Amino acid sequence: MCLDSYRLNAYEEAIRQYGQQQQKAIWLDIGTGAHMPLTRLLIKYGVAERVYAVEANREAYQFAKTVREHLPDEEKRKISLHGCYSKNVDWHAQDPRPNAIIHEIVGCICSDEGCIKVMHDTIRNLDGCVSLCIPYRIGTLCMPVSRPNISLVSSFCSLLLSTSVRIVKKVGIQGIFNPPKDAFLCEKPQFIEEFILHDYVRKPLDKCRMFKTKFIVEKSIAKWTGFYLAPHILTSIDNRNGDTEIDGLKQMTSWPVRYVQMYGDREAINVKQGDEIHVVFESNLTDECPTYRLEAWVHDDYLLRSSFVWKGPAIY
Ligand SMILES: C[S@@+](CC[C@H](N)C(=O)[O-])C[C@H]1O[C@@H](n2cnc3c(N)ncnc32)[C@H](O)[C@@H]1O
């Protein structure tokens, strides 16, 4: 995140806005990371009476410990660093207890790093006494596409970040940096997941969430093979200047866009303007490593439907 200005700026803006309310909170930074960027922003903007920074990854935690040691005493005193999963801290025993949560456990499919389950468990452990969550809303955008041709920039980014430079040939999922937009079959993407974290995590988690939608093809003719999926985040409800929005489809963030190929190379479906592409997206978010199923077909050609199932972040 530290090297991704779109992501960092959107979080910084949400914290700056919170600072204008002149109210300090007791923050919990879930998955603070090696450099603790969010904890340090909370301190920088003077919005934290205290920050509990929790990091499950051992190496990142060790690095964060050193970073904390080198901070000025006044800042250091405000940060309690825990090297474990957030659910393993006994929040009842902490004094004071956190009343605001910040995190960046958001994946390319927004829920695929287990954020919904983590937030659900954490807010329940805190007896629901959480008045603010940053980010405010997370979602996953979906766009039907034809098989993308990878640009040189995209291949170079993929090489640097050790993801595949080739496009899958069969039904499958892969990450692509800055994927070509000329593969889009419509003007506007649609949300297939959307969570206002503060509200959503108070409800019981469903074992099977199902979302159905349809797209109307706007390209005159194309060969439809699958979908791009990308995260969309509002770090704060107030996005009047567009500064608290992160759009993984429009902006080149460090999240690769997921390309889900629903039809193999040879089975690509011919579509034309006005055709309907139907989508069913199912997820089970009751586990920290969620499972997903995407099913799609064109018009009423249900016999030619294709279905693809995967688990967790699925990075190829
Ligand atoms: C995407 S990284 C973000 C790190 C940091 N916030 C940043 O922006 O650089 C997510 C981090 O959250 C940690 N993490 C995920 N779930 C966690 C949990 N329930 N408790 C503590 N750490 C968690 C992971 O180990 C990982 O380091």
Could you characterize the architecture of this molecule?
The protein is α+β, with helices and mostly antiparallel strands and 316 residues long. The protein folds into two domains: 5-104, Vaccinia Virus protein VP39 (Rossmann fold, 3-Layer(aba) Sandwich), CATH 3.40.50; 137-311, Hnrnp arginine n-methyltransferase1. 21% of the residues lie in helices and 32% in strands. Strands 6, 7, 8, 11, 12 and 13 form a six-stranded antiparallel sheet that branches. It has a five-stranded parallel sheet with strand order 3-2-1-4-5. A four-stranded antiparallel sheet has the order 9-15-16-17, with no helix packed on it. A hairpin with a 7-residue loop joins strand 16 and strand 17. The two termini are 20 Å apart. S-adenosylmethionine (SAM) binds at residues 1-2, 30-33, 35, 37-38, 54-57, 60, 85-86, 104-105, 118. S-adenosylmethionine binds at residues 1-2, 30-33, 35, 37-38, 54-57, 60, 85-86, 104-105, 118. InterPro entries: SAM-dependent_MTases_sf.
